Amino acid sequence: MRSFHLLATLLFTLGASASPAQESPSYSFHRSISAFTEYSNTSSHIILGVSRNRQVISLGFAVSQRLLHSRYLNWYYAPEVLPLVLIQDPVATQTINSSGSIFSQSEPTAIVCKPTVENVPPNPAIGFPGYIFTRTCATRWSYAGGASPLGQRINLMPRSRIQTFVVGNAGFLVSTHDIPVNDSSRFNFTFEFGSGIEFFRDHHHSWTAEYRIHHTSNAYIGHNNPGIDSQLIKLTYTIGR
User: pLDDT tens digits for 1-18?
Assistant: First the structure.
């Protein structure tokens, strides 16, 4: 009888050690809602845009729906709504002063604005009176709002509390006046892509920091289309289940 108990104990121990270990739960939202802010200090030619020195500040909301869940990745549909987008444009004011007659014009410029004072002397032989040309630089803020309904995001290592991800999105912006320059368009298309890190505080809350390259242009529905390429830093807080 004692030998039977020893054999039973040995078999139970071997069976327990051979059974698969219980998998740790993954950090993955089936559905979620997020609030985020974005900032870009300047713009330059990265993809297609040529407008320079544009600052961008955005506030928005996003929802996500998980499309695929596996051991190695999660794939989400993640559209975004942007009720507040502020774009700072450089504005050049050019003034010509000729014999007391002054002509002045102000407009946003796609290139870097440089203050200038130039004295063009008169030429009496042809009756040219000469003039003083002055360029001064300032900025203006433009308000826009829009949505990006094509958002896709893939998170890697879903069992980890800290996850890396890649993201892509596309949509539109509507502004109160033409951006980024006059005679362009109040309606602009957008697309962006990037990557980031998501930190899960628990299974229902997370913080995200990411970097995106963002493009805005009107696809030549306006007369001018210099476009804006921005490098965005984005911070997001998410609640999910």
Answer: 454 454 445 444 444 444
Beta strands in 70-130 (DSSP E): 73-77, 80-98, 101-108, 116-120
Two tokens at 36?
Answer: 């985020």
2.40.50.140, 2.40.160.20, 3.40.50.1980, 2.40.10.10: CATH of 26-89+141-240: 2.40.160.20
| CA–CA dist 35, 13 (Å, integer) | 51
CA distance 125 to 223: 41
CB 170 within 8 A of CB 192: yes
* Cα 139 to chain centroid, rounded: 21
- Overall size of the chain counted in residues: 241
In this structure, what DSSP letter does residue 185 have?
A: E
Phi then psi for residue 123, to 5 deg, are -130, 90
Kind plus residue range of the DSSP H or E element containing 197: strand 185-200
Reading the block at residue 41, the tokens are 């200090």
- CATH 2.40.160.20 segments of the chain: 26-89+141-240
Terminal CA-to-CA distance of the chain, rounded, Å?
Answer: 53
List phi, psi (to 5°) of 2: -65, -40
Could you tell me the pLDDT band of residue 24, with boundaries at 50, 70 and 90?
low
